[in-house]
Amino acid sequence: MFTAAALLMGLLDTDEVVTHAVALQCTSMAFMVPLGLGIAATACVGTAYGRSDPEGVRKAGWTAFVLGTGFMTLSCILFLTMGPLIVSWFLDPRSAANANALSLAVTFLAVAGLFQIVDGAQIVAAHALRSLSDTTIPMIMAIVSY
């Protein structure tokens, strides 16, 4: 999907490419938190599973899921409410040449913010489930979330 998106970028003008880069940079930075929590969940859930501790599996999995989804909900709220400020870190709002790009970037960031919640949820859950040797549900979650 990312390769197809990169190829389609050739159809866009400069402002749209710039705003896509801004939104992608912000979402990529935020995504690192649930990705890290997902990797930690793999270790913690797998360890509890290995010692036949269903309560430990439940606690580790749900803790990581709630933390990851909670963080992404906060990042969504920030992207929706602080979009113009965040975009101004990348584009100079005083420059008239950036007016269209600034407007587009705030919109792109809002859409990306909404995507953050499901993306964070699926990455943490997928990692936790993989540690239980379940790859079918993570695949379905990834398809639905993307």
Give a short summary of the structure:
This protein is mainly alpha-helical.
Give an overview in words.
This protein is an all-alpha fold and 146 residues long. It has one domain. It has six helices and no strands. It has helices at 2-8, 14-50, 54-81, 83-88, 99-130, 136-145. It starts with a helix and ends with a helix. The mean pLDDT is 89.
What is the count of helical runs? 6
Say how many strands there are. 0
Helicity, in percent?
over 70%
Kindly give the count of domains: 1
Q: How big is the Rg?
A: 18 Å
Q: Kindly estimate the percentage of residues that lie in beta strands according to DSSP.
A: under 5%
Which residue ranges are poorly predicted, with pLDDT under 50 across at least 5 consecutive positions? Answer: none
Shape: elongated
Overall pLDDT metric: 89
Q: Compute the separation of the termini in Å.
A: 9 Å
Which class do the helix and strand fractions yield?
mainly alpha
Q: What sequence of helices (H) and strands (E) makes up the elements?
A: HHHHHH
The biggest sheet amounts to:
none
Question: What are its keywords?
Answer:
82% helix; 146 residues; elongated; mainly alpha
Q: How do the strands and helices of this protein lay out in sequence?
A:
Blueprint: H1 2-8, H2 14-50, H3 54-81, H4 83-88, H5 99-130, H6 136-145
Helix pairs in contact: 2-3, 2-5, 3-5, 5-6
